[in-house]
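Problem 12. The chain below contains 281 residues. Write out its predicted structure in token notation.
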Amino acid sequence: MPARLVGISRDLHSRLKQFFDTPLDASAAPIEIALAVLDDVEGRVEPFGRGRRGFPYTSLTIHILADEPDRPRIDAALQTIGQRILERLEELRCESPRAPRVEIAWIDQRPAAWKPGQIFAVDYRRVPGAAGASRRTAPPAPVTPGDPRAVASPHVVVSVLKGSASDAIYRFHEPVISIGRSEDPTDALGRVRRNRVAFLDVVDGVTETVGRAHARLRFDQASGDYRLFDEGSSNGTAIVRSGETIPVPARDPRGVRVQSGDEVLVGRAVIRIDLPPGEER
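Solution.
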């Protein structure tokens, strides 16, 4: 094996148990903390069988290690976290989701049980009567049949053009599609991410450049579009459209709208996004 690939292989194995390619540390931006909290919540969604999902908790306390000067900025980024949690649960099609009560707890010193570099932890509880309330925001009104916000169920086809994945072609009728390396990578805290487009743990000069939590496709109910988000990957994400390369900024909450026929660079791997006729808006 060439020396370059040997080095890549050694580095890959040294990071085998690492979930995010760029883990949060004390320099993390407030929006990055908010997005990491949402991902933590997603990891607590439980399957009920036969495609059913649920979120069994009614109360969350987000413990955050931060200096006094940084707290107002972080608090501002978490102002709508209750609503955003509800939206994420609805995207995941949890049964009868309700906004949990959310509290923020500031701490000055890292607890002994935390991992080195860890800056937040979420305490989940089920408290009778607590569901549906949050000190941050009220839940948005539901989308009902006939509502102008209502759109058809999403449908997207993802084809792997370069790199090794569990399948060559994926077809989805769901609003959130995680893209990364390994089907069920686990982070240092034991949280599991379920990648729907799952690249393999192989070293071929391409596939290992896909992060374990690399990117996410998310259906926007209001506009009827899929949007692509980079989740802080080390090797970047970009859309190639009509010969133009459109970078997808890391951890940008706005994402980038995808169109049918777009090719997406996931590190050095490449996937193609196709929206069947009648699905693209």
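Discussion. The first helix runs from residue 3 to 14. Students who got a different answer should revisit the alignment rule from Section 12.3.
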